[in-house]
Amino acid sequence: MLLRHTPKEVIERNALTINPAKTCQPIGAMYAALGIHRCFPHSHGSQGCCAYHRSTLTRHYKEPIMAGTSSFTEGASVFGGQANLVQALDNIYTIYKPDIVAVHTTCLSETIGDDIPQIVSKAQESGKIPEGKYIVYASTPSYVGSHITGFANMVSGIIQGFANQSERVIENRINIIPGWVEPSDMAEIRRMMSLMRAKYIMVPDTSDVLDAPLTGRHEFYPKGGTTIKELQSLGESSMTLALGHFTSVPGAETLRRLADVPYEFQDIPIGISATDRFLMAASHATGAEISESLETERGQLVDMISDMQQYLYGKSVAIYGDPDQLIGLTEFLLDLDMHPKYIISGSAGKVFTKRINALMEKYGKEAIVKNGPQADMFYLHQLIKNEKVDLLIGNTYGKYMARDEDIPFLRYGFPILDRVGHSYFPSVGYKGAMYMLKNILDLFLDRKDRDAPEESFELVM
Ligand code: SF4
């Protein structure tokens, strides 16, 4: 009964967001930076912002998240944070010895109007950035956008810091910008590419960073992440596959602008159709054949869907979270003959509703689709109160309404603060789709077992 006061009646709101379905920009910037090998994220703002961003990432990934802060106090808040950032860079390179520092801004430093490129030049002139070390930056004010925008901005910032136009083009090698997905998903994309023997560079890559094993020895810089050498040769790839309109296209566009590398947009490969398209695009771009083992995995997924179709058909679902992930998830649910009924994202952008509505039309179904500031958890709860769904899919914050409304709940997206596994089990590719499907079916069948009268309580389902 935690949300028992949510009223059923939906009133149009223009200037109020209640329980947003997003979080703040720098979290995305920090996550992107952690996908670069020996990169140290730095938050140019007050300590509180940095502590919140680190703790959210730590709670989701169950890994220690390192990051520096310019530690603004009253003085920096009034006169600007140049001195703090220059001192911080000196300390970071001296004490933590990263190869790259990735600086992102916060609401406070943006409001003051700190000019990061100018401060970086100042630090370079005064010798605070040692020879052979690098600095990249992104503007991430959190009063606009979301963690998704922050991720995209930092990916662009990283690319901007390293992209070089090159005469040399390595035939059949592509860049992959994977979008905001889990380390397990990045590992799965790598696995699919190696099964195809395709040549690629992935940027960023948080696998082997935020899913590192417990060895008894702390690695300040884990072995994973895109390397400097790879970043420097992004301009030599024949093209870029940008997975996700919101999270990857801005980075791909930056690389096209600076290094003349063309790009192709694809959805994050969630579910059967998007994975088909991704593999075909990768095969076309690299000349590598889709391996037999991937075809087998696809066949197993189709088999699983047909075996359990009776439990999926017509089931209504409410989903909320990040736009690129929701587009893939909507298509997957439609492929399963389910009915995504409410689709809500706190991240703004017209492409989202356009893409979702096109999918719904293609499959002959209707949905309430909303994104941006007033597309919040409160609104979603109101929709559910008016007409219940069979399944709720989204991050941990949905657990309150799932409990209040007694709806099966699949945790998916960011952040997941109360369960583990998302760092290790993918949701992309055919394997990821099988894992997600298994979780959906478990929820439906557990519910059926719970609610079945004794005379129809079945052993075999
Ligand atoms: S919303 Fe702004 S002030 Fe608040 S934690 Fe995020 S960056 Fe800091």
Describe the structure.
Strand 12 (391-394), helix 17 and strand 13 (409-411) form a beta-alpha-beta unit. The two termini are 32 Å apart. Helix 11 (271-286) runs antiparallel to helix 18 (429-451). Helix content is 45%, strand content 14%. The model has no long low-confidence stretch (mean pLDDT 96). It folds into three domains: 25-162, Nitrogenase molybdenum iron protein domain (Rossmann fold), CATH 3.40.50.1980; 172-291, Rossmann fold, CATH 3.40.50; 294-454, Rossmann fold. The chain has 18 helices and 13 strands. The protein is an alpha/beta fold. The strands form three sheets. Strands 11-10-9-12-13 form a five-stranded parallel beta sheet, sandwiched between helices. A four-stranded parallel beta sheet has the order 2-1-3-4, sandwiched between helices. It has helices at 25-34, 47-61, 74-79, 82-95, 107-112, 116-125, 147-162, 183-195, 228-232, 249-259, 271-286, 292-307, 309-312, 323-335, 350-362, 377-386, 399-405, 429-451, and strands at residues 39-44, 68-69, 100-105, 134-138, 170-177, 199-202, 237-243, 263-266, 316-320, 339-345, 368-371, 391-394, 409-411. The protein binds iron/sulfur cluster.
